Amino acid sequence: MRRLHGGTMKRVSVASLKWTMLILVGTLACSSESSGGDDGGTSSASGGTTSGGGTASGGTNAGGSTMTTGGATAAGGSVTSGGASGSPGTGGATATGGNVAASGASGSETGGATSAGGASAAGGTANPTTGGVGGGVVGGTGPSGGASATGGNGRGGRSAGGANPGGNGGSSATTAGGSTASGGATQTGGTTGNGGSTGGTSAGVVCYGYPGTAQSPLYTVTVGGTEAPVEKFTKFSPEMQVHYAHCSLSGTTAATVDVTVSESVSSYTLSPKSRNIAATKNGNTISFSSGPNYLILAPSGKELLFIFLDAEETNPPKLGDANVKNLADYDVDDTGATLVTSKIQSAINAASGATQDILYVPPGRYKVGELWLKSNMTLYLAGGAILYGSGSTGDFNTGSGGINIEGMQHSLIRIYQAKNTKLLGRGALDANGHAIRAAGLNASLLKIEQSSDVTVDGIVSRDSSYWNTLIYRSDAVTIQNYKMINCRPNQDWNNTDGVDFDESTNGKLYNAFLYTGDDSMATKNEEASGTVNTKNILHEHVVAYSNSVGCKVGTKSMGQSMDGITWKDVDVVKAGRALTLEGYDTAVVSNTTFEDVRVETADIFIKMALDEPPDWRSAANASVYKDTYFTNVSSDANRTIVLHGRSGSSGSIDGVHFKNLTVQGKAVTSQTDSDASWNIANGVTNITFE
User: Fold this and answer.
1) What is the DSSP string of 538-565?
2) How far apart are CA 396 and CA 369, in angstroms?
3) Residue 549: strand pairing partners
4) For position 212, what pLDDT does the model report?
């Protein structure tokens, strides 16, 4: 944004399975531009992570039990409990599963002599279609028949081996040889795929890593005792370097997060501060406990670490379900070595309106250009799956239609004139934005146009070259559990907006993390024709970190009206301008609400301006702001509140209503209150306080 200133499993590769945990090096350069964009703010540094356990079982092979604890039953057990029929690739490297047939009376020495449950730690080392490498560390190394307490350190199978393929093993389990005395009730290695979520004292954890990424040399993270992959965005160099980890937590119990820094740590902040998370430091390890959350750890003088802790997915699609189509059936390269746009597009087209209307993308790296989602379908990205943008600009010219905004005609993912479309999962979209931007292409990552009833849920959205997510002339679009990491310059801004609702109605952004080089959230009316006037847009429970604006209306405010735009329960961790209305066109902007908003760091706290029209485009400069509400809004620093109407006009800003406004913990009760810094001018009327 320009700134004023500111079906069934057919083929799955073992390599893809391994990718769910491996982090491989890949570097690119990120450049910022000075053209376009609304306004930049100041910047400062660093990056993020998260972690944790996962869908235990390692699949349909042994090494665990239906308790999902990788040794949860009193192992020793029946002949097959430590390894399914002794197949070395399907659940235990030995065939015994217990040297006697007594089944083991709850840790009895007859329950499977010294290697009960399978002496091997593999839990199933091969056959990714039936389970993968999950299972307990050992099925039981002593007479207890299940001494291993790990709940399964391996990853779930790519197919039937766990509800969330590609994650780590369960976070913890019981220790005394299993929770039952049956010696192994089943030989499936854990039928629920929850990685020990029912068998221990910590929350079940699934962590996600992607192929072709660089492992962080700075941060090591464990969640619930399970180590999580931590990626460093080296491709952002020489701009801000960031690190992140991504995990899901099952149940309602908080998980312990331990972050070890490879360098000396003198101090740190954990944001959002409003979460009131008590953290402790022991040497260079910082520890805290949290449920689902999106957090930023910033050790003093070091790059940022993002920790994404999602809630467990609710009824995610599974391979083998009657309505699920497997992308692997389309002979698609999942190594990222070849362009697979046309094959994936064929699978998308086949899913639209079909009985198998869910296209399941297994873990792997898929090199793509522009993809077009269709009506009446779901694209599901499993954890460990990443659609990675081509570095060739020509690969993004696969179709026509839609609006060209500031040269931004194309996108990695297009949803154009579609209805009932869903984009779901714990996988990632990476637009390879700085590479294609350097090659001269402004493209978004996700562009939703003239569409309705669209849901985006759970995705990691990375590296857009321009505005990341644009919703244009669309109705009833919901984006939730959305984690965004754009390139953010060291200074100034680079047009990498977060989520922009533009000439759209009844939209919702819920539970999001937005790290951007430009506006985190900007709501607009794009065109003078004004065929759609923006109305009823809700941004709720969002963490924003930006060089420019955190929450914004404008600058484009064309058409007749923009009504009922709301930001609620938002943490602005960093911004140039935290909360702003900057509309310089023709719309009457009314009933804008900022409610339960906390600002940690910003150059300007609040800015409502009509006297600084953009110099990079023509503007009618005739908009009016009516009834703007700031309720339970706070700033940790005393930064200016700017209220500037249009020069020489009367009542161009009419009705600015403050209720429980605080600055540095002090209540602000009037526009002359010295606890706040005010800059008021030019036709601002009806300022109220409660």
Assistant:
1) EEEEEEEEESSEEEEEEEEE-SSEEEEE
2) 5
3) 577
4) 82
C-alpha–C-alpha distance, residues 432 and 33, integer Å: 16
- Model pLDDT, residue 530: 67
Q: What is the pLDDT of residue 430?
A: 98
pLDDT of residue 67: 32
Measure the CA angle with vertex 466, ends 460 and 468; round to 5°.
30
pTM of the model: 0.75
Instruction: Give yes or no for a cis peptide into 272 (omega within 30° of 0).
Output: yes
pLDDT at 529: 77
What separation in angstroms does the CA of 469 have from each of 92, 118, 267, 379, 678?
46, 50, 35, 17, 34
Distances (CA, A) of 285 to 224, 261, 263, 480, 573: 15, 6, 10, 31, 23
Count the Cβ atoms, other than its own, within 10 Å of residue 531.
Answer: 8
Query: In the 3-class helix/strand/coil scheme, how is 612-666 assigned residue by residue?
Result: CCCCCCCCCCCCEEEEEEEEEEEECCCCEEEEECCCCCCCCEEEEEEEEEEECCE
Which residues of the chain have a pLDDT value below 70?
1-203, 530
Q: Residue 506: what pLDDT?
A: 98
Per DSSP, 91 falls in state S
Q: What sign does the CA torsion over 126, 127, 133, 137 have? A: negative
Residue 2: name the closest of 613, 621, 506 by CA. 613
Instruction: Please report the pLDDT score of residue 236 as a whole number.
Output: 87
The CA-based angle 653-530-626, given to 5 degrees, is 15
Amino acid at 611: D
| Residue 523, both tokens | 């709501």
Contact status, residue 204 vs residue 193, Cβ threshold 8 Å: no
Measured between alpha carbons, how far is residue 157 from residues 90, 186, 322, 634 in Å?
11, 17, 19, 47
Coil, strand or helix at 598: strand
